[in-house]
Structures are given as structure tokens and as C-alpha cells.
Amino acid sequence: MITSDFLVIGSGIAGLNFALQASEFGSVCLITKKDLIESNTNFAQGGIAAVLSKLDSFDLHVKDTVTVGDGLSDEEAVKLMVKNAPKEIRRLVSLGVDFDRKGEGMELGKEGAHSRKRIVHRGDKTGMEVEKSLVHCARKNRNIRVFEKHLAFELVMENGRCIGARAIDKEQEKVKDFFARAVALATGGLCEVYQDTSNPDIATGDGVAMGYRAGCEVEDIEFVQFHPTTLRRKDEPFFIISEAVRGEGGVLLNSERKRFVDELASRDVVSMAMLKESREGGVFVDISHKDRGFLRKRFPKIYETCMEHGIDMAKDMIPVEPAAHYSCGGLKTDTNGRTNVEGLFALGEVACTGVHGANRLASNSLLESLVFSSRAVEEARKCIRNRNMATKEMEKLAVFSSDPGRMRNSLKEIMWNRAGMVREGKGLEEALEKIEGAEKDIGTGKGGRISPEMVELGNMVLVSKLIVRAALEREESRGTHFRKDFPEKRKDWEKHIMLKI
Questions:
Q1: Is 490 a catalytic residue?
Q2: Are residues 335 and 199 in the same domain?
Q3: Which residue among 267, 338, 360, 474 is the active-site one?
Q4: 379-436 pLDDT per residue, tens
């Protein structure tokens, strides 16, 4: 049994940001299912949106966010996020994050659906640089104990309150019980449920699944954003060709080498236009009119990766296609990170703060993670001030290995073909039937044995079921959700789909 004041599950930007600030007020245990540095944050290329220019304003950033959210963003939550952005950027700089600078200030980039340049970045590997700095700070913090290669699989509940979590120590192959006064889920995304995805294979929706089973409300889960420009790589996650490439003048061309869409429209608009064009042939990003020196400096990772695939972006067009990228919905929270389950907080992509609505504005994801995880710390402090440590006797489980790879791949194919960019009732119903069939075939902890592979598969199946159920219920097309059988947006129907166990 391991106890602490705060328990953080997940080591991306949201989890680390929360852990570092919470450590000023109590002991922190941070568990992560891979290495501390591995997270979706590492894959964030573009940057962090923040109003830092005299040519920009909070009102414009709010307007851009709400417009892209297509009628479902919580405007008060958006205003709160936008107004706190400059403060969060300054704090990251104080922790050692070295953003690109221009003169005395930050160098600001522009991305799709932003009306001004406001993207703070570090080349094309902003997420990696932020993660590296936060990990460095966490490792030297004496109040933070880090448990790597620990897969959380169940929240521990007592009288309707979350008091901890159970995790598999994958190296020692045993189950450990963690208890805390406040628990924060920061497990990242869920897009590994799709066949074509920009996410690493760790993005299996663990937090949404655990939270839902514990009684959390799930909101807007049908809104899965597809990144329009990714480079297919065999046996690896699709590599993002950042929106910043288009922000710096890259154009989208079809097989006839003609432009067919506003490159800086919102991601749902660009992705759907690309889907239509791809049926006629390939789609490409072309930024070859830019100087090679500029490309190597501004986009070092993209330049290097393209060269590895025989593509010289200073001369060649880059073949691109959409891939599942980001979950706009998740565990419903207030603006302090609280779920409807006492003692449980949700931070980052696992949460639904109401900011994104039906579609996310580019580079608002890292910002959302920072702002709301910072706000959650003060609320979580109340838990450790007012609550005694609770523990309970837990059932002993043995860990065993298994290989559910075939079922995992089958699920990903079903979700891509039936609940991907284009959906319709019949296909969603077929997907739900297959998913519920898979749900009956698997289980975790049966006979007192448990497997990391089966835990992830079980989480993927549950999350897929939630996405499909919500997509069936939303009989309209809005934001990232396109129903072929209901192609129009219902302007009088600005409701959220809420799911609860």
C-alpha cells in the first residue's frame, strides 16, 4: 500500500503541471504506464496559443475558439482559459522552457482558424520541449515520487468517493494499491481506438474508461478531431505535418496540382475537403517555395522526418492524409478540474472542460491542459486540508501476460470504417453490435488474474462503445461529427450528449 496527499495518473503536460504545483502543499505520487517522458504532449508540434501581441486581443482569441467550437463551447470557460494564457506561458519560461524568440518578445506563429499570430513555439517540437522541462523539474522535486511502467486499471472508491487507484507494476508483474486524499486523472487521449491515428499506442482512453466505470459523467465524446495533414509511416503513428507549415505559406494541392480549400480553415473543414479530393487521387502540402535554410530552422523535425522518407520539402510536395488526432470530449469537469465524483479530478485531454465544443482550435490543447490543471491545484488542496486519509483492504490479483493484438486491430478497423470521419446510423449500429460482442468476450481481473494488454483492450472497447453511442444519439452534423444521413446542422439543437453508467 502506497499513500500520498495527491495521486496523479499520467505524465503529460497536465499531470506534470498539476504535480509540480501540488507538491508545494503535500506529497505527490505520480504513476505513468510507460516512461515518464512518454506522452501525447511529446507529439504536439505547433505550440501553445496565447495573446502576447498588441495586434491581438483576448476577445479575438475567444471568438476564434467559440467559432471553431460550432455552437457548443462554454464561452465562460473559454474566456477563463484565454485570459490565463499569458501567465501560464511566463510560468513555463520560469521552469526552463526555451520558446523561440524574435527581438525582445516571443516569435508567434499562425495556425488554422486563428485570426492573428499567437502560437508560441519551439521550432516544430514544442510539446517535446515543454515535456522535457517539466520532467526535469519533477525528477528533482523531493515531494514527488514517480512510478514508471505502472498501468492504472481501476479507481478505488469508498462511499461514492475516490480514494485511490490500483495499478500493475509491469516490471515486477504485481498489483499495487495507491491511496490519496485527492486523485487526478491526466491519462491523455483515446485515438488509438482508430486504425489511422497520429497518437502513440499508449493513447488507449484509460482515464475515460476508469472514470466512467467509477461513475463520472462523459460529455461530447462523439467529437473526435482528425488532423488533416499527416504523413503515413509503416508500423508507426502517422507523423503530423504541422498546421504551422500551412501557417507559414504551405498550400494544399490535389492530384491535379490545384488548390481546393482554404488551408487555414478549421480542421474539420480541411479534413472533409481532403477526404473528397483523396478519392480522386493524392493530396499534398507544398511549401517548396520557401528557402531551405528557413525550413530547416523553423521545422527541424518535419524536415528531418520527410528526408528519412525520401521527401525534400524544399523541392518536393509532401503527401498527406487525415488521421484521428484528438478527443474534444471526455470526463465532464467544472473549471476547477472537478468531476462529479468526489475527490476525483480530470485534467488535459481526458477531461471535457467545455472549451472545445464540437471542434478544437489548433494549439488550444496544451493551453487547456496548463490553465485547468493549475486551477485544479487550489481545489485539490481543500481535499487534503479537510479529509483524512482513507484506505481499504483490496482483493489480491495476479498479473499474467496475454496477446489480444488481433482483437485490438479488429476494433481499430471497425472504428475507422464505421465511426470515423463520415458516419451514418446503419454503420454505427453495426459497430455497436460488434463492440458489444467484443465486450462479452473480454474481461479484466477474471479469476484473480489481470493483464496489461487486456486492460488496455478493455478500455479501448469501452471508449469505442461510448463514442458510437454518442454518435448515434447526435442526429446532425456539427464540428468534427459528420452524419451522412443527417448532413445538416440543427441550429435549434445546441445540446450536449451526456453518458453515465
A1: no
A2: yes
A3: 267
A4: 999 988 888 899 999 999 999 988 888 999 999 999 999 999 999 999 999 999 999 9
